[in-house]
Amino acid sequence: MSRVGKKPVPVPAGVTAKVEGQNIAVKGAKGELKFVAPDEVSVKLEDGGVTVTPLGEDKRSRAMWGTTRARVQNLVLGVTKGFEKKLEINGVGYKAAVAGKNLQLSLGFSHDVLYPIPAGVTIVTPKPTEITIAGIDKQQVGQVAAEIRDFRGPEPYKGKGVKYAGEFIFRKEGKKK
């Protein structure tokens, strides 16, 4: 039994949720998000909350039960508060700046990396060595952060590269003479 899946997702004041079959639409102050639930679960709107129940007792139905409930919870959190990821840049001469609709990254290559900022996501650089990614869709914010980190991931010897704020980089010792 899923402990997470049993709990209904509360819909706070100012947020409207609509359930039509397997389609869930949540609208709030920050925008609107939609999600199509898998066929292994049923979704109902009752008592000011969204309830998810499995349609079978097989392993996939039980797995989708908790997953669907968490996805609906992320929809509600996204339209009320939004999501945010922070990245840090370490290295001499490594920096980032927002230039129009692109993020310009200087990461030690012979050229600057231009990353087009997707719709629905805002990127801010409070310092040249910090990047803040914000949006209402948790999956999209995480994907953008992962793509930016992928340009120059942190290396284990000097720690140079792009890393998540608060991420621990296991450092290696260099060769001894």
What does this protein look like?
The structure is a single chain. The chain folds into 2 domains: 3-80, Alpha-Beta Complex (Outer Surface Protein A, domain 3), CATH 3.90.930; 83-164, Ribosomal protein L6 (Outer Surface Protein A, domain 3). The protein is 23% helix and 37% strand. It is built from 3 helices and 13 strands. The strands form 4 sheets. Strands 11-12-7-13 form a 4-stranded antiparallel β-sheet, with helices on one face. The longest helix has 22 residues, at 59-80. The radius of gyration is 21 Å and the shape is elongated. The N and C termini lie far apart (58 Å).
The number of helical elements comes to: 3
Largest sheet: 4 strands, antiparallel
Indicate the percent of residues in helices.
10-25%
Task: Write out the strand line-up for the largest beta sheet, numbering strands in chain order.
Answer: 11-12-7-13
Helix and strand string, N-terminal first? HEEEEEEHEEEEEEHE
Number of discrete domains: 2
Please, what is the CATH homologous superfamily of the largest domain?
Ribosomal protein L6
**Rg, Cα atoms, Å:** 21 Å
Tell me, rounded to a whole number, the average pLDDT: 94
Please report which band the strand proportion falls in: under 5%, 5-15%, 15-25%, 25-35%, 35-45% or over 45%: 35-45%
N/C terminus separation? 58 Å
Task: State the low-pLDDT regions, or none.
Answer: none
CATH class of the largest domain: Alpha Beta
SSE-based structural type: alpha+beta
